Structures are given as C-alpha cells and as structure tokens.
Amino acid sequence: MGKTVLVQPTGTGPVQSTGKKPRGQRIKEFFIDFRRQWELQSMILPGIIFMFIFCYIPIYGLSIAFKNYTVIDTLDSAPWVGLDNFKIIISDKYFWDSVVNTLGISFLKLAVGFVIPIILAIMIYEVSIGRFKKFVQTISYLPHFLSWIVLGGMLITWFSTSGLLNEVLLGLGLISQPQNILLDPSKYWWIATLSDIWKEAGWGTILYLAVMSKIDPTYYEAAKIDGASRLRQIWNITLPNMKMIISLNLILTVSGLLGSNLDQTLVLMNSQNREKAEVINSYVYRMGMTQGDFSYATAVGLGVSIISVILLVTANKVTSKLNDNQSVL
C-alpha cells in the first residue's frame, strides 16, 4: 500500500503526511492528561523534589574542583586554579594505585559476581518443591539486609587467627599454623569479591525470577514434547527470554566499574592490606573528609563520574548491537 498523500492548499504539489501531531496540540494533550490524572501525578512530586535538592543543586558544588577551596571559603570566594587539581591527579601515585585496586576488584566482581545471580535464579526457578524454594530464597536474600558493619565484623572474626576459617583449615590439615587472612594484601581482592557476592547474589536474583515467572509455560511443554532436556530448555527458552534484563544489569555493572563499595572497604581495610584495599571511593573519602583537601577530592570524583558516563554509553551501544539494535535504556 502506498503512503497517504495530502494536497497543499497553495497548489505547490503533494506532501507526504508524517502522522505527527503539531507541537502545540501535543502540549495541550499533555496538560489535559495531567489534569485528569493529577492524583497519580502528584505522587511523584516528593521524588522530584528530593532529586532536585540532593542531585541537581549539589552540581553547583563541582566548581570547587577548579578552585583552591578550604573550609573558610565559600563556593564563590575560593580562588580559581583551573586544571591544577587534575594535573596533580595525573602525577599522584596513590591515586593510580587506588585505580588499579578498583579495576581489579570490579573486574573480579563482574566476571564472577555477575554470573552467579543468574545461575542461582535459574536453580531456584527449577526447584519444584514450594517450601524448599521459599527457604532457599529467604536464606539467599538475608545477607542483603545486614549492613557491612555487621557482616564486616563477622568476617573479621572468622578470618582472625582464632576464627572459624582457621579452625576449619587446621582441622583439614590444609595449613600448619593459623594466620589472619585479612592482613594478607595478596588475598584481599578475592575477599572483597566473594564477600560481596555472598551479600548480594540472592538479592540480585529478584529481577531474573520476576522475568522467568512471565515466560509462557507452553514453551517448556512444547520443548518436552520435542524431547528437549532441562539444560536445553534453559539454554533455548529461559536465557533468551532473560536477554534484555541481563543486558540492563550488564550496562549498570559496567558503568559502575570505578565505583567500588565504600562501606565494604572502610570495614575490611586495615594498615596491613591498604596497598591492595584502597579503592577510588575510599581514596576520595580520605582526601576530602580526613585530610580536608576538598578541591582535590572533588576533582577525582568528577573525573570518575565522567568516565562512568562514557562506560555507560559504550556498554549501551555494545549491548544494543548484540540485541539486534534494541537499546534497553
């Protein structure tokens, strides 16, 4: 069928209709819909106000990254220094050490921690016993609701020379004498990765389980009739239906590669493992809150934010290519 053609009143020739309403009409319809649904629309006002106060107004404070700001200055009175703070960042050895640690821990969490919630969600979904499924879900969710202060205290106790882990390893004959594992810098990356997985893997299954619950069961019935095994059904039915939510989580994970968990680091870091435990967030916290160099800390945070946005856009482009040019954002 051909496209609809409209004839211009002036007689200058036919013009193709785009089907797009005039801007004024769209604005008018928006306000009509808003007035009709004002009760529902008003429910988002607290969220908008919160974001404006705590997310948009503080953006003005980023200007101190280009100033020499001290506690006795105001945002306007602090002297401009241009890009001096960023030049210091480039030559700061301790900053680059924190970058290496951040990327090392984040890539381990991405390689191991990203896959485990998917596998756990599929295993929970495949369980046919309702009570056992609920029990597993509850146990896996529980660590998420405990703060890192609580979990960190547990880990410090377990990893001490007289802790649970050393008792188990001594009993199995794997070590000859107890040692405090948290004092060993070479093991910290794995401690941070595995403890984060322990805390968040169960919580990360929620979205996957929600998506799997919407899959049409007739797909599985047809696959059974065709003789497909459970693994084949998971590979050809379950995972393809989870493709979009997996892509979304991957984008968010990649964009947060430079944002390691500050709470976890502050709890587990000590003077012995600092060389492997110091991440960008803890470095910014130490420079800003402990040493009072607010301009330098802001400059680091601004640079990290810019790189995170670049990673976000890049990850979105890559995943859209893998999803037949369909973006999930």
From TrEMBL:
It is found in: Cell membrane. Keywords: Cell membrane, Membrane, Transmembrane, Transmembrane helix, Transport. PROSITE patterns: ABC_TM1. Residues 7-19 have a biased composition (Polar residues). Residues 1-22 are annotated as: Disordered. Its main location: membrane. InterPro entries: MetI-like, MetI-like_sf, UgpAE/MalFG_permease. The keyword Coiled coil does not apply. It comes from the Bacteria. CDD domains: TM_PBP2. Residues 99-315 form the ABC transmembrane type-1 domain. The chain crosses the membrane at residues 44-66, 103-125, 145-165, 188-211, 244-262, 294-313. It holds the Pfam family BPD_transp_1. It is a multi-pass membrane protein. Belongs to the binding-protein-dependent transport system permease family. This is Aldouronate transport system permease protein.
